[in-house]
Amino acid sequence: MTLKKAYLLVFLVLLVDQVSKLYIKTHFVLGEEIKVFEWFRIHFIENEGMAWGTKIPGDYGKLFLTLFRIVAVFGIGYWLWDSVRKHSSSYLIVSIALILAGAFGNIIDSVFYGVLFNDSYHSASTLFSDQPYGSWFHGKVVDMLYFPIWKGNLPEWLPFVGGKYFTFFNAIFNIADMAISTGVGILIVFNKKAFGTDKKEESTEEVAA
Predict the structure, then answer these.
(1) Residue 172's closest CA among 65, 30, 67, 10?
(2) Residues 17, 82, 109, 143: which is the catalytic one?
């Protein structure tokens, strides 16, 4: 897989991610939900950018997280470039491109959204608002995809959680998160193929030799 195609994949994922976030942010009030199907809903929430809405404590926790993500993106970007240069498997290149796009998508929220939007508590937010809700590097990540596939009380015989009300699954996420999860999933499921060499590239080099 060429670097041009990998960058195109990154761009397309990033475009879909940001368009969906901009639409939700400018058309939904925080907490608003639309039921598409019983098992799929659009539910607008915001978080600090960590999994399950986790926060790093302290005044500089959010700043540290954002800066760490930026450094990580440069590292992932180099990994993508180096993998293409070494003619690594297309499985690996696609997975890295998806992870890079996802990480970059959430970084855009963290870096810019705090100064681009006002808050979404009472009405849909305004882009380029003169009353932004935050500051540079302190924006909140927009999430909206919710798949409550099953809800109900767990069987009493289950240890620790028996009889408790449970939702599968209760995470709310965005396109960037999906891209990261898909990329990691490819690396796990297709581990041997991902870290092998691209046979097509090898055959091309052999013909050229």
Answers:
(1) 30
(2) 143
